[in-house]
Design brief:
alpha+beta, Rossmann fold, Dna Ligase, domain 1, 9-stranded antiparallel beta sheet, 14 helices, 23 strands, 28% strand, binds adenosine monophosphate, binds glycine
Length: 437
């Protein structure tokens, strides 16, 4: 089988690494890929949003199956266009990707089908939004409706901040058309966790939980980023809560989408807050998370490709996946300046030596480029160091041991990935380093 992965980040490197090891995959391509992905796949310089270019590439290379990594092309209809050209593609149609592409659509769906989420109102008029905020008071959350590269949400702790967020989105048009409509919703209190499922239009196969670290600074401080690290599974999502998430959120969402005439296929990523009244949805994403994908796939024992094909073909019934009974933890290395303007072009040395002989650690590339024999930083999030371990603490220790061997003075990372899980275990009882998670 000839497979094409679309994207160029750490998520796509992990996807290519998993898919290239499948006996079903004869030849793997990635558009556009990156220098790390080049070890697994033939990289072709076509941009993920160039859908016509992708179709042309598929025809030229006789691609049998496409896996779309990022949300941009999914929301723009890449899967619809590929399928219309007779090319099988994994991921939701544009109509189904609206779950991520429009927060207003997602909230209305939850309200109509009784899926637990924060109370909300939609606004296209800034004055009406401000009236509502003044009545409801802070803390309150203001969200641009459309895709805003993870920057469209303001969790306002004061009314003034919330009013400023309305002006930024609707008057200054900071997010362009994505902010023409906003959702204002209640602030939910509780710990945040993500859950991933494979969906085939009718059914869902639960994958695993993960916890992301969205803020730039240790202890979850400073501005939001695309994610500075993650680990899976997240112990806070107990087996009992996972059942609740499947029964009250994931399956009702899949059935609701089918009933709305927008059958959902692909990965469904639910962002949750574990409130005292149970898990509630704060966001849906229509793809694997980045860096959550890197930790999920590191734990997956089964062949990923047949599972993606089964989801595409509507045949997830009786499908089962096997997982390593281990934790995986990812530390993101970013270039100085991120999440503002990252410094590009600094040289990264010593990756091979850093990874060394420790087979429980793997380095994925997220934003690198090769010039001659030099590896250079070429983005905000640049490298992902992923380690396996019998506990979060062990995986964390292994990951940072490798991070510390990478020779890249212009890079930085958080030093506390996994702290919530480690802190929780510590707080409850002394736990041996060997404790299984
Ligand atoms: P999103 O881009 O939708 O993931 O939102 C960014 C971040 O805002 C999330 O990761 C949460 O930490 C936070 N957030 C979003 N909605 C809420 C809410 N209703 N209550 C509390 N925090 C929220
Ligand atoms: N890590 C968050 C995301 O992929 O949206």
């Amino acid at each position: 089988m000839r497979v094409l992965v679309i994207g160029s980040g750490g998520r796509e490197h992990a996807l290519c690494w998993a898919i290239s090891s499948s006996p079903l995959c004869d030849t793997l391509f990635c558009a556009p890929g990156n220098p790390g992905i080049a070890d697994e796949a033939a990289c072709v310089p076509v941009a993920p949003n160039d859908i016509d270019g992708i179709v042309k590439l598929c025809k030229q290379e006789k691609i049998d199956f496409v896996v779309v990594g990022p949300e941009g092309p999914l929301v723009a209809g890449a899967v619809d266009t590929l399928e219309a050209n007779g090319i099988a593609a994994f991921g939701p149609s544009a109509a189904a990707a609206a779950l991520e592409g429009s927060k207003a659509f997602a909230k209305d769906l939850c309200a109509k089908y009784n899926i637990p989420t924060a109370a909300y109102r939609r606004f296209t008029d800034p004055a009406a939004a401000k009236d509502y905020i003044r009545k409801h008071k802070a803390p309150i959350v203001v969200k641009a409706d459309g895709l805003a590269a993870g920057k469209g949400v303001t969790v306002a702790t004061t009314t003034r901040q919330a009013l400023a967020a309305v002006d930024a989105a609707m008057v200054a048009k900071k997010f362009g058309d994505a902010g023409a409509e906003i959702v204002v919703e209640d602030f939910l209190e509780g710990e945040e966790v993500s859950f991933f499922a494979l969906v085939d239009g009718k059914r869902a196969l639960g994958l695993a939980s993960a916890q992301d670290h969205k803020r730039i600074g240790d202890g979850d401080t400073g501005p939001n980023t695309g994610g500075m690290g993650a680990y899976s599974p997240a112990p806070v999502l107990t087996a009992e809560l996972e059942v609740q998430v499947m029964e009250k959120i994931v399956l009702p969402t899949v059935h609701a989408m089918r009933d709305e005439g927008r059958p959902y296929k692909g990965v469904l990523y639910v962002g949750l807050i574990l409130t005292k009244d149970g898990p509630q949805v704060i966001e849906y994403n229509c793809r694997f998370g980045d860096p959550e994908c890197q930790v999920l796939l590191t734990r997956l024992k089964s062949d990923l490709l047949p599972a993606l094909i089964a989801a595409h073909d509507g045949e997830l019934e009786d499908f089962d996946l096997r997982w390593r009974d281990e934790v995986a933890l990812c530390v993101v290395l970013a270039a100085k300046g991120y999440p503002g303007t990252p410094v590009k072009g600094s040289e990264i040395r010593g990756l091979d030596v850093a990874a060394g002989a420790d087979t429980s650690v793997r380095i994925f590339h997220a934003g690198t480029k090769r010039v001659g024999d030099k590896l250079l930083a070429d983005g905000g999030r640049v490298l992902n160091v992923v380690a396996r371990g019998r506990s979060v603490r062990e995986a964390q220790k292994r990951a940072y041991a490798v991070v510390d061997k990478i020779d890249w003075p212009q890079g930085f990372c958080r030093r506390d990935i996994g702290w919530r899980a480690i802190g929780r275990r510590r707080a409850s009882a002394p736990v041996s380093e060997k404790a299984p998670q």
